[in-house]
Amino acid sequence: NAGVTQTPKFQVLKTGQSMTLQCAQDMNHEYMSWYRQDPGMGLRLIHYSVGAGITDQGEVPNGYNVSRSTTEDFPLRLLSAAPSQTSVYFCASSYGQGLGEAFFGQGTRLTVV
Amino acid sequence: GENVEQHPSTLSVQEGDSAVIKCTYSDSASNYFPWYKQELGKRPQLIIDIRSNVGEKKDQRIAVTLNKTAKHFSLHITETQPEDSAVYFCAANFGNEKLTFGTGTRLTIIP
């Protein structure tokens, strides 16, 4: 039982490049989410999903896309990277509608130059 | 809007003393209030949570209190130890699907 697995752990992108952050969980959780963590700003919700085929926007969705084709996977896509997207990204999953313990992945430190 | 304010942003206490971190939230309909601990370079992990049908919950040296009327909740850590040094985040739900986090408190335990 691996929990929530995120890849890659570190990434450097040039402005304008695109990439996908991968997230997979093996706990059969319906709810999955993506957060970004910036100094002094805590964890801010980017997108979330309450089940396969269903996604919705969080607090800071601009510049990011998500999809949820399976219960296990919830990838985050950066369409055209900008320096403002330099951050640490965390994927999380939880049982039910998100009102329970959130299990976080190990994080991806993304730098956009 | 959906807002959770957390204070203080940094806190230093002597080992063995108590630490208190406070959060306020904006939505009176919020009913789930978790606290997460994040050690340096690690992922956040749940340490305690409380739901609106109770006013206080304890787990060994950690307790959380909730005042729904005032819309604030607090984390209390007693008999602090060096391993308590970390960043602590409070959170509150907005609706059934969104969790909004506070900006974090960096707690340092002074030996």
Pick out its properties.
heterodimer; A: 113 residues; mainly beta; 7-stranded mixed sheet; 4-stranded antiparallel sheet; B: 111 residues; 6-stranded mixed sheet; 5-stranded antiparallel sheet
Break the fold down into its secondary structure elements and pairings.
The complex is a heterodimer of chains A (113) and B (111).
Chain A: E1 4-7, E2 10-13, E3 19-25, E4 31-38, E5 42-51, E6 54-57, E7 64-66, E8 76-78, E9 87-94, E10 103-104, E11 108-112
Parallel strand pairs in A: 2-11
Antiparallel strand pairs in A: 1-3, 3-8, 4-5, 4-9, 5-6, 7-8, 9-10, 9-11
Chain B: E1 4-7, E2 10-14, E3 19-25, E4 32-38, E5 45-51, E6 56-59, E7 62-67, E8 72-77, E9 86-94, E10 98-101, E11 105-110
What does this structure look like?
The complex is a heterodimer of chains A (113) and B (111). Chain A is mainly β and 113 residues long. Chain A contains no helices and eleven strands. The mean pLDDT of chain A is 94. Chain A has strands spanning 4-7, 10-13, 19-25, 31-38, 42-51, 54-57, 64-66, 76-78, 87-94, 103-104, 108-112. In chain A, strands 2, 4, 5, 6, 9, 10 and 11 form a seven-stranded mixed β-sheet that branches. Helices cover 0% and strands 51% of the residues of chain A. Chain B is an all-beta fold. Helix content of chain B is 0%, strand content 59%. In chain B, strands 2, 4, 5, 9, 10 and 11 form a six-stranded mixed β-sheet that branches. In chain B, strands 1-3-8-7-6 form a five-stranded antiparallel β-sheet, with no helix packed on it. The radius of gyration of chain B is 13 Å and the shape is globular. Chain A binds chain B through residues 31, 33, 35, 40-45, 48, 50, 56, 58-59, 90, 97-99, 101-102, 104-107, and chain B through 2, 6, 9, 31-32, 34, 36, 42-46, 49, 89, 93, 96-104.
What's the short version?
The complex is a heterodimer of chains A (113) and B (111). Chain A has strands spanning 4-7, 10-13, 19-25, 31-38, 42-51, 54-57, 64-66, 76-78, 87-94, 103-104, 108-112.
